[in-house]
Specification:
By secondary structure, the protein is of the alpha/beta class. It has one domain (12-253): Rossmann fold. Helix content is 26%, strand content 16%. The protein contains eight helices and ten strands. The strands form two sheets. It has a seven-stranded parallel beta sheet with strand order 1-10-9-6-2-3-5. It has a three-stranded antiparallel beta sheet with strand order 4-8-7. The chain is globular, with a radius of gyration of 18 Å. The structure holds the ligand O=C1O[C@H](COP(=O)(O)O)[C@@H](O)[C@H](O)[C@H]1O. The ligand O=C1O[C@H](COP(=O)(O)O)[C@@H](O)[C@H](O)[C@H]1O binds next to strand 4.
Length: 275
């Protein structure tokens, strides 16, 4: 029997002169990925980050070809603040996206609100409960025994963190049984967070990073050109057939030496991105 090669493929790196072009191509990439996945599996499961990302996805709202009722959404990470707090990733996504499209509320998998508002919050219980939601969604008798997201959308902070995985943090080195980790003292506020871990991220079918602006120049160059520094983003290497993409603008990529991939004509309806 031929051996299956699971060695991670090298990252596919797209840099766009303008962030508007980036958003245009990214939107087409997400819509195309969702369409093809729904054709094959009947549903599309996405993990989405917070921070600046949701604003960059606003073109999705205008598309008429998205079957929102087939989408299931989890959060890559969540800040432990109430859902009506400006720092909540769910609140950000709700305001920018979900309130504007016909996605059923039951398809948006938030962290448990009751546990979130308990005094004091038990972070371990919150993380375990989110892991149970992953088990319920992904693990069945005849399916994979690991969450395999169809797409994970990640951001990257100026300090090089992605999800709520910060450079040098213990949560980067959890074992394969830990799918959701908690953070008590995040270097970036708010301090308490939960996050999907690298074992989950590296099982995804596709991972797409989105990073824009000068503030990300240094961390992007370290992540892509100096993997020996083991920044969180360098450790996002999904096993084949998984692929990791970077969608960045030229302001963010100014210091990066890693080879850029050709991106398609952003006007085309079906960008020639390698899926
Ligand atoms: O705190 C967070 O930061 C990262 C990066 O955010 P950005 O605003 O610099 O894009 C984000 O991806 C993550 O979801 C969030 O919790």
């Amino acid at each position: 029997m031929p051996l299956i090669d699971h060695t991670p493929a090298p990252p596919v790196f797209y840099s766009f002169p303008e962030s508007t072009t980036l958003c245009n191509v990214l939107t087409k990439f997400i819509a195309q990925t969702a369409r093809e996945t729904i054709e094959k599996k009947g549903k599309f499961t996405l993990a989405i980050s917070g921070g600046s990302l949701p604003k960059n996805l606003s073109l999705l709202i205008e598309r008429k070809d998205i079957e929102w009722d087939r989408w299931h959404v989890f959060y890559v990470d969540e800040r432990v603040v109430p859902f009506d707090h400006a720092e909540s990733n769910h609140a950000l996504c709700q305001t920018e996206l979900w309130s504007k499209v016909p996605i059923p509320a039951a398809n948006i998998h938030t962290i448990n609100e009751e546990l979130l508002t308990a005094e004091p919050v038990d972070l371990e219980e919150l993380a375990d409960e989110y892991q149970s939601q992953l088990i319920e969604h992904f693990v069945s008798k005849d399916a994979a025994r690991f969450p395999v997201f169809d797409l994970i959308l990640l951001g990257m902070g100026p300090d090089g963190h992605t999800a709520s995985l910060f450079p040098g943090s213990a949560q980067l080195d959890v074992d394969e049984t830990c799918w959701v980790a908690y953070i008590e003292e995040s270097p970036k506020p708010p301090p308490k967070r939960i996050t999907l871990t690298l074992p989950v991220i590296n099982h995804a079918a596709r991972v797409a990073f989105v990073a824009t602006g000068e503030g990300k120049q240094e961390s992007l160059a370290i992540t892509l050109d100096q993997p020996e520094k083991r920044y969180p983003g360098s450790r996002v290497r999904p096993a084949r057939p998984g692929v990791v993409y970077w969608f960045v603008d030229d302001a963010a990529s100014a210091l990066v030496k890693y080879p850029r991939s050709d991106h398609s004509d952003p006007q085309s309806d079906k960008p020639e991105l390698k899926l």
